[in-house]
Amino acid sequence: MTDISPSELPEVRAEIIDWINGPTAAQLWFKHTTLGSYDWLPFQASTDPATYQSILRGTEITRLREAELFYVAAEMVELVEVAAHSIPDFQLAPQDLPAPAGFMLFERPIAAMPAGDTELGISAVSWAPMPGREHMLLASTYLDRAEAAPFFDRAAPNRQVGNNEPKLVYAHGGEFGWAFGDNEGHAPEATHFMATLAPRLKAAWLLMQQPVTDLSNVSVPRPARRRLQRAGHEPSPVRLIQLRRPPSPRDAESSAAAQEYRHRWIVRGHWRQQWYPSRQVHRPVWIEPHVKGPSDAPLLSGDKVHVWKR
C-alpha cells in the first residue's frame, strides 16, 4: 500500500518531472539505452545513446506534464483484480481510455514486475500516444519508493533510491507499447509482466466508465498549490476512483415471478458484452454480484462471494 494520498499526487508528479530532468536520471537512461533496453522501440536507441536518452526522458516529461491525474482506491484495485480474470478479449481503442494522456496511481499495486530474485509492485502507470505513431500508446510504470528502495540500494549501492529519488520510482524495463485496434498485432513484444498488467489496466479503464465506480475530483491543498506554483508547476485536480457503495440486496425478478422460487442464490460478478451504436463496437460491462430469489427465502450456499467493504 502506498502512503501517498490523492491530494499529494500533483506534487509527486512535479517531483518526478524535476528528477527526470536532472543529471542522475540522465546517467540512468544513458546506461539503459547503451544496454539496448529501448531497442524494441521503432528506432535503434542504442546506436546513439547520448541523443536517445535525452529524447526518451523528454518524452516521459511531456507525457507527465500533459497527463490527467487519477488515483485508484485499494477497494477498486481489488475489484479490478477479480474482474480481470474473466474480462473478454477486445482490441483497445482510444475511446476506451479515461484520458488521452494519463498518470494513474494505485493505492495498492495493480501488478508485479520481476526485480532480480524478487518482485516489486507496480504502483503507477503513465501513458500517452507514441510520438509519430498515434495508433500506439507508449506507457511507463512506477514503483513505490518505500518498497523499491531496499532492493535498489542492495543492487546499486551508489544510487541510494531511498534518499535521492521521488516517492514513485521510474521502473526501467517496465515500459511498453500498446497498439490500438487493427494494429494490435503489430505492437512490440510485451515483456511477461504485461500478461497480468494488460487485462487489469483494461478492466480498470472500463470500470471507471461504468456505474460500479464513484469518481470525484480532489483539489490540491493551498500550501501545496503555492509550492507547486513557486516551482513552476501548474496544480491540477486528481480524479479519485472508488468502488460505489453497493445497493441493498435485491430480487432480480418481479414479485409474482419471485414467488415461484423457494430459495435465494448469489449471482457472482461477471462481464456482459454490450453494443455501443455510436462507436459500432461491443465492450464488456461489469455486472455486480447480486442476490436472486424471494427476499424471505433461505439463501443457498456454495458460491464464493467477494465482498468489498468501506
Description:
There is one protein chain. The protein has helices spanning 9-20, 23-34, 49-66, 74-84, 145-155, 161-164, 194-207, 222-230, 255-258; strands at residues 68-72, 102-106, 111-115, 118-130, 133-144, 168-170, 176-179, 213-218, 238-243, 265-267, 270-276, 281-287, 290-292. It is α+β, with helices and mostly antiparallel strands. Strands 1, 2, 3, 4, 5, 6, 7, 8 and 9 form a 9-stranded mixed sheet that branches. The two termini are 16 Å apart.
In short:
The protein has 310 residues and is an alpha+beta fold.
In terms of topology, how is this protein built?
Elements: H1 9-20, H2 23-34, H3 49-66, E1 68-72, H4 74-84, E2 102-106, E3 111-115, E4 118-130, E5 133-144, H5 145-155, H6 161-164, E6 168-170, E7 176-179, H7 194-207, E8 213-218, H8 222-230, E9 238-243, H9 255-258, E10 265-267, E11 270-276, E12 281-287, E13 290-292
Parallel strand pairs: 1-2, 1-9
Antiparallel strand pairs: 2-4, 3-4, 4-5, 5-6, 5-7, 8-9, 10-13, 11-12
Helix pairs in contact: 1-3, 2-3, 4-7
List keywords for this structure.
9 helices; 310 residues; globular; alpha+beta; 9-stranded mixed sheet; two-stranded antiparallel ribbon; 31% helix; disordered C terminus
Instruction: Please provide the ordered H/E string of secondary-structure elements.
Output: HHHEHEEEEHHEEHEHEHEEEE
| Helix fraction by DSSP (H/I, runs of at least 4) | 25-40%
Number of strands: 13
Distance between the termini: 16 Å
* Global mean pLDDT: 83
Helix/strand class: alpha+beta
From the structure provided, what is the oligomeric state, counting identical versus distinct chains? single chain
Largest sheet: 9 strands, mixed
Q: Write down the overall geometry.
A: globular
Count of helices? 9
Catalogue the unreliable spans.
Answer: 183-190, 248-259, 302-310
Radius of gyration, in Å, reads 22 Å
Name the beta content range. Answer: 25-35%
